[in-house]
């Protein structure tokens, strides 16, 4: 393990100041499940680590029917995974949380950390984007709120400016007429990075799909929305033929690469298969 | 698990029972000492600089900045280490081949090869210092494919050896008349099979600690399967007598065969310790276990066989090419064993088989569970399945018909003992209702229309001991202490297999004491008798036999002593569970302690039994029956259920044997479906040297395994008929999966791993 300096921030202001003053190669540290591995494997050059675990107010989870689900930057994946509310109202999030790493990893890792790492294959991002989640960002001058779908600018890159810190995430309330699914595709059932991940969140009104969002993981520089496929599905009854055409459209919309995990062609094929399956699964709520 | 048919009507007290393993408490409490737990005062940490080029000459190497870095104590390069050409494996078999390795060379032959080593006061400083070593390379043309490597004009890796990038002269086996056989055939099948580069991925990375004392004696703590071989090669290369090298191995976190090589860092660790006069520890990262460890030989197998319409084989023509990577290591052994194995499993009188082993500019391949046989039996078993398909016959019946049996010539050249393979196949057919499965309704489940279900059977046999390639020797010393407890001294390594428990069971049974009263001392080359190493599925068979002999001698001495005290003849008494009793009058007994302990001023008897055993070979057999689900939309294959039926002769510890079988199946599933250490064919760079992208199946991926262990064909070579079980289970699972996939979707695969992409591509080709 390469050496680094450890700093413990007392407040958001303190953490933000450290990020600015210590210069490049300074990173926030919460769960550490990605960062420490990256340091050890020499994948990331790190000189300073700023521990934010002592900052008060970042561990809360709240839910109300108008605002939705809000959780802080220190809330672990495991805590959310076990929350009855998540299990009942957000089966898509529950599926993503339960598929991340192992139980041990999930008990350390934070959802906000998984998002800020900005990996195109991160499991928590597609269902949160499909649900229309937004992120709360602190800076020493003001606070801002950014839709998660606009948060990422590339692999490992986000809109965060130097000294900005994500303090939490809000997911809109889960309507009674909503259907949600997240399907992760990999070579094994645990400790796996997605080859492809597909999230679908939809609303049904009197047998017609009034809204749908499809988010595709690991098939582009960031998690992508399949907006043309979505457009084909809105206002339809989501019959098999339309779903098939939309799934084909989603395959056209994604921009996968080939690597040791899978070829671009295979990833594109899986976008088609999983989009169809995810819509079917989301509709099972109404069955 | 169920067990059937005891082979000998003998009442066992300890053998055949799943006694509590002697190391279980230490391991579950974390108290067990592994090499990494050893901490010595003043210990330094060593790290290796590895080449990021596949083939090059080192033009210059500048270590001045690294040496000047605070905390760095020594830096070694090819310019200041002894230049001794040595074998990659200190193994007697490899000793028959070319010496092709230096500790450090002025040439790099694969991406990841070590070019320098640093010792520093912390691991971090050593790691940082590596970046300060400046190496200038003169790149050389490289070759990554065995077919390319043997073409005229290909870049040559070594000046030594047979030449043309061959690791050894081709191994040829000819029996009968192959051309006449083909002339008799009703039909011929021909195919090319290939295997990837699975890695053993043992939990404990390679590690060693070296320390020199004031008398210039070197002590090495190390995770190795072959401690006496390490002692021998270190002594040879460092120019020391064996009295000046002591090798210590306590617990190990696995080896699977790969820890029987001598690695660059092991020599360098000793040299850094010598240079600094301080203990030095060198431990691989997980990345290094891939690039600098040992994987299974990738292979290409061409197989052509002639069959009669009743399914019997009349001719077998076969060529195997194993990829040795940049150095020879176990290439000669693997090639010899894999090639000879192909004469057997399914009977054929006319065989012509040629095995080659080729150098390429890729990481070194070496010994790995299933040693060359995984590759050759994958081809043999799948083609047998294809023959059955072509004839419209049941593959299990056709395999049964062709199975080797009593009296057939084994790969080792001697006669097969018993009907192990036939019994395994027959037993499996009945146990799972194979006939009904074959005739089942194949309509897909309407709830999961994209899933196709398949069943397959795969067979294997594997030798216990490396005979005739190595004339082996097992040794044991049994000492009886004055309180009636017993100490077994053995050089057999404890890889985590439970071998020491099995040896203690054998000693307790033979000597007539309680299992709990036997202690095992192992892993200190200064103390225990010489040992050949833990490999070739032979520890229970070979060292178990030596331990039985040693315990038998100790028993004779105990009985003699007891006879005097009981005032009877030796023939009238027997020992069991720590008591010596009069056979005719079981109520009349004394304890072993009373028999040999001190009395009336006379010291206790010094009872020591030595056993040496030189075996030939026995063969264990298995048939695996495997169920898979194939997702025809994603190409994902899920192994749902495996019924492994094994004949291992006398079972010493049923749960340990079952554990070996389950572990082998897990590894074999990985090799067949997900695991492949991928080398970029353009640069020689490793593409997945780590556990993120090298995909081993985990507990969640495991199928139901219903192990059946038979004692159908005991071999007189092992203790009470015991044979090996270590390597067998990894061999049959692969073809059973490939055959099950065919049963599910009607597509044949001739390679491993069979990836989801392969499945989809094949399904599309089939539909087109």
Secondary-structure blueprint:
The complex is a heterodimer of chains A (287) and B (768).
Chain A: E1 5-8, H1 12-21, E2 26-29, H2 35-40, E3 48-51, E4 61-64, E5 68-72, H3 77-82, H4 84-89, H5 91-99, H6 103-106, H7 111-116, H8 125-130, E6 134-138, E7 143-147, E8 152-154, E9 157-158, E10 165-171, E11 178-185, E12 196-205, E13 208-217, E14 224-225, H9 227-233, H10 240-253, H11 264-283
Parallel strand pairs in A: 1-3, 2-3
Antiparallel strand pairs in A: 4-5, 5-10, 6-7, 6-10, 8-9, 11-12, 12-13, 13-14
Chain B: E1 2-4, H1 24-29, E2 44-50, E3 56-62, H2 64-68, E4 72-77, E5 107-108, E6 114-120, H3 123-130, E7 134-139, H4 146-149, E8 171-175, H5 178-184, E9 187-195, E10 207-212, E11 218-222, H6 227-238, E12 245-248, H7 264-276, E13 280-283, H8 286-291, E14 299-307, E15 313-325, H9 331-341, E16 351-359, H10 373-391, H11 395-402, H12 420-431, H13 434-438, E17 451-464, E18 474-480, E19 486-490, H14 499-511, E20 518-522, H15 539-566, E21 573-576, E22 579-582, E23 585-591, H16 592-596, E24 607-613, E25 618-631, E26 637-647, H17 654-673, E27 704-705, E28 708-710, H18 729-745, E29 751-752, H19 756-767
Parallel strand pairs in B: 1-28, 2-13, 9-29, 11-12, 15-16, 19-20, 26-27, 26-28
Antiparallel strand pairs in B: 2-6, 3-5, 3-7, 4-6, 8-16, 9-14, 10-11, 10-13, 14-15, 17-25, 18-19, 18-24, 21-22, 22-23, 25-26
Can you describe this structure in just a few lines?
Chain A: It comes from Shinella fusca. The complex is a heterodimer of chains A (287) and B (768). Chain A has helices at residues 12-21, 35-40, 77-82, 84-89, 91-99, 103-106, 111-116, 125-130, 227-233, 240-253, 264-283, and strands spanning 5-8, 26-29, 48-51, 61-64, 68-72, 134-138, 143-147, 152-154, 157-158, 165-171, 178-185, 196-205, 208-217, 224-225.
């Amino acid at each position: 393990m390469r050496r680094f300096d450890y700093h413990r921030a007392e407040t958001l202001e303190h953490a933000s100041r450290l990020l600015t003053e210590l210069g490049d190669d300074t990173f926030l540290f919460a769960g550490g499940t990605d960062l420490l591995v990256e340091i050890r494997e020499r994948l990331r050059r790190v000189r300073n680590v700023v521990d934010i675990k002592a900052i008060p107010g970042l561990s809360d989870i709240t839910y109300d029917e108008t605002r939705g689900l809000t959780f802080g930057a220190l809330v672990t994946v495991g805590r959310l995974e076990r929350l009855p509310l998540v299990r009942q109202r957000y089966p898509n999030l529950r599926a993503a949380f339960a598929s991340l790493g192992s139980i041990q990893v999930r008990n350390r890792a934070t959802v906000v950390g998984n998002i800020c790492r900005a990996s195109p294959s991160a499991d928590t991002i597609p269902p949160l984007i499909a649900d229309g989640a937004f992120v709360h960002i602190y800076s020493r001058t003001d606070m801002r709120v950014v839709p998660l779908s606009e948060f990422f600018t590339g692999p490992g890159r986000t809109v965060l400016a130097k000294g900005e810190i994500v303090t939490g995430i809000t997911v809109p309330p889960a309507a009674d007429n909503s259907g949600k699914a997240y399907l992760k595709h990999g070579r094994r059932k645990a400790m796996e990075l997605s080859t492809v991940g597909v999230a679908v969140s939809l609303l049904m009104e009197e047998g017609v799909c009034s809204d749908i969002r499809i988010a595709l993981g690991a098939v582009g520089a960031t998690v992508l929305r399949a907006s043309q496929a979505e457009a084909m599905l809105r206002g339809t009854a989501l019959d098999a033929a339309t779903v098939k055409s939309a799934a084909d459209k989603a395959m056209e919309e994604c921009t996968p690469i080939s690597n040791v995990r899978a070829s671009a062609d295979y990833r594109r094929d899986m976008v088609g298969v999983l989009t169809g399956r995810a819509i079917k699964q989301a509709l099972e709520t109404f069955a | 698990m169920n067990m059937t048919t005891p082979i000998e009507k003998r009442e066992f007290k300890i053998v055949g029972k799943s006694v509590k393993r002697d190391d279980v408490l230490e391991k579950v409490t974390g108290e067990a000492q592994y090499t990494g737990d050893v901490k010595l005062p003043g210990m330094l940490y060593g790290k290796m600089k590895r080449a990021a080029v596949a083939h090059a000459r080192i033009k210059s190497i500048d270590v001045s900045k690294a040496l000047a870095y605070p905390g760095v104590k020594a830096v070694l390069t090819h310019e200041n280490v002894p230049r001794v050409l040595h074998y990659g494996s200190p193994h007697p078999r490899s000793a028959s081949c070319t010496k092709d390795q230096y500790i450090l060379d002025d040439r790099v032959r694969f991406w990841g090869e070590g070019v320098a080593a640093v010792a520093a006061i912390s691991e971090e400083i050593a790691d940082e210092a590596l970046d300060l070593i400046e190496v200038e390379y003169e790149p050389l043309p490289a070759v990554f494919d065995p077919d390319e490597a043997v073409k005229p004009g290909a870049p040559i890796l070594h000046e030594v050896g047979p030449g043309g990038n061959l690791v050894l002269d081709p191994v040829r086996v000819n029996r009968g008349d192959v051309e006449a056989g083909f002339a008799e055939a009703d039909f011929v099948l021909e195919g090319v099979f290939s295997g990837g580069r699975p890695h053993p991925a043992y939990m404990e990375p390679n590690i060693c600690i070296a320390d020199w004392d004031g008398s210039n004696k070197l002590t090495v703590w190390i995770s190795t399967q072959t401690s006496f071989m390490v002692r021998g090669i270190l002594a040879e290369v460092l120019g020391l007598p064996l009295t000046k090298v002591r090798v210590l191995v306590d617990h190990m976190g696995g080896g699977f065969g790969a820890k029987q090589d001598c690695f660059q860092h092991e020599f360098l660790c000793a040299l850094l310790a010598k240079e600094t006069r301080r203990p030095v520890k060198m431990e691989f990262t997980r990345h290094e276990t891939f690039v600098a460890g040992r994987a299974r030989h990738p292979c290409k197998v061409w197989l052509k066989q002639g069959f009669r319409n009743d399914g019997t084989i009349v001719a077998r023509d076969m060529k195997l090419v194993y990829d040795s990577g940049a150095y020879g290591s176990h290439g000669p052994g693997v090639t010899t064993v894999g090639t000879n194995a192909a004469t057997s499993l399914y009977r054929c009188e006319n065989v012509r088989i040629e095995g080659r082993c080729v150098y390429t500019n890729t990481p070194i391949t070496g010994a790995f569970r299933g040693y060359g046989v995984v590759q050759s039996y994958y081809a043999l078993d799948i083609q047998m399945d294809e023959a059955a398909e072509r004839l419209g016959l049941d593959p299990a019946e056709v395999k049964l018909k062709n199975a080797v049996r009593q009296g057939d010539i084994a790969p080792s050249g001697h006669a097969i003992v018993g009907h192990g393979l036939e019994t395994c196949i027959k037993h499996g057919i009945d146990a799972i209702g194979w006939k009904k499965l074959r005739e089942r309704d194949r309509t897909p489940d309407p709830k999961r229309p994209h899933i196709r279900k398949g069943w397959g059977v795969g067979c294997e046999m594997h030798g216990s001991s490396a005979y005739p390639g190595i004339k082996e020797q097992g040794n044991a010393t049994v000492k009886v202490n004055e309180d009636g407890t017993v100490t077994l001294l053995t050089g057999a390594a404890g890889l985590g297999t439970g071998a020491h428990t099995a040896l203690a069971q054998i000693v307790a049974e033979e000597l007539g004491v309680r299992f709990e009263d036997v202690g095992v001392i192992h892993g200190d080359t200064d103390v225990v008798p010489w040992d050949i190493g833990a490999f070739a599925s032979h520890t229970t068979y070979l060292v178990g036999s030596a331990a039985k002999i040693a315990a038998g001698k100790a028993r004779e001495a105990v009985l003699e002593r007891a006879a005097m005290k009981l005032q009877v003849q030796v023939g009238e008494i027997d020992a069991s569970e720590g008591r010596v009793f009069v056979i005719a009058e079981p109520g009349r007994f004394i304890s072993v302690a009373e028999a040999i302990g001190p009395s009336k001023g006379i010291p206790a008897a010094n009872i020591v039994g030595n056993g040496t055993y030189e075996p030939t070979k026995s063969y264990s057999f298995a048939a695996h029956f495997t169920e898979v689900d194939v997702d025809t939309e994603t190409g994902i294959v899920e192994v749902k259920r495996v019924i492994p039926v094994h004949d291992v002769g006398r079972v010493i510890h049923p749960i340990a044997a079952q554990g070996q079988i389950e572990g082998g199946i897990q590894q074999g599933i990985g090799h067949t479906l997900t695991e492949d250490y991928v080398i970029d064919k353009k640069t020689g760079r490793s593409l997945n040297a780590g556990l993120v992208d090298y995909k081993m199946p985990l507990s969640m991926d495991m199928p139901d395994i219903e192990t059946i262990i038979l004692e159908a064909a005991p071999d007189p070579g092992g203790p009470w008929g015991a044979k090996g079980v270590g390597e067998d289970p990894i061999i049959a699972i692969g073809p059973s999966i490939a055959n099950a996939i065919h049963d599910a979707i009607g597509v044949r695969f001739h390679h491993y791993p069979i990836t989801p992409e392969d499945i989809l591509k094949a399904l599309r080709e089939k539909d087109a």
